[in-house]
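Field reference: sequence -> structure
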Amino acid sequence: MKSTLLALSVAVALGLSMTAQAEEAVTVKIGQSSPLTGPQAHIGKDNDNGVRLAIDEINATKPVIDGKAVTFEVMSEDDQADPKTATIVAQRMIDEGIVGVVGHLNSGATIPASKVYADNDIPQISPSATAIKYTAQGFKTAFRVMTNDEQQGKVLGAYAAKLGKKVAIVDDQTAYGQGLAAEVEKAAKAAGAEVVAVEHTNDKATDFSAILTSIKGKAPDVVFFGGMDPQGAPMAKQMRQLGMKAQFLGGDGLQTPKFIELAGADAEGAIASIPGLPIEKMPKGADFKKKFEEKYGQIQLYAPYAYDAAYVMVDAMQRANSTDPAKYLPELGKTSFEGVTGKIGFDAKGDLTSGPITLYTVKGGKWETLETVQP
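Structure field:
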């Protein structure tokens, strides 16, 4: 009888213990938003996959925060690279209980969404929004793991002036494209170049013949485009069709495998920059590239930054010993994290404290590194 009672007591105790453990286990939602449909979907999915890879790795370590077993879950939303849609999906994720968001991809989506997150005290880390305005709004919830347009534009403008004395500039009128183009114009002039044309298109256009014909008449040595690859590729093709010999130059929105795929032979010789080191020179780049490409295929653009952003967010939670946004937000500002892309720390605005810019050119149908510049 005694042994039976003892066995029953142990069983009850074990059952209660397992119930308590089950009650202590929690699921924590982290948002991710980027264009998952439309012409920029290849870049948006790249961000999404970067976040998912990080979260899968973190979950595999069986994290415990505030005495609770935590499973992180990615809630991914398609903002279609559209400012209005971005605010809608931001509110939807908040309503669904996210405790932070990695996103958005485009500056034009990130900036309006950032107010929604700030109003709800939800930390936001963009892996790819470079517009100066994003962190200049004064929101304590806004961070990014990539250098901004002022830093990148300074390098691109100076490089444009090295390539030739007459520079034409085209932008897609988005927060990213227009912001970067403005910084390039300023830096090119400061470096002694003459800006012979400033033209505007939009991020849905594919026919640039009128703009390019006008620019051709001014005989520029360099044509800089502030925008993404769905517009950059046909622009490069149409420049060659018009017999333009000018150097085609762009920012990070062009530095993708997709640009080469879309532009074909006309991509040859194009130059574009991206904040950060070439992946083979990133501290943990080779390992990341192998893991990512085994699971998701070729890296398009910002996946390493999205991966780092997710890790930085969870690192802040672990240091705060809390997944409560109000409690871990102060720890984000104190971040000192060794990521795939390099050392990550933030200034008072939420900007990355330092970061190089790398220039690439298309050679033999592939992007090859030209040089890395510390702005």
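Note: The two ends are 80 Å apart (CA to CA).
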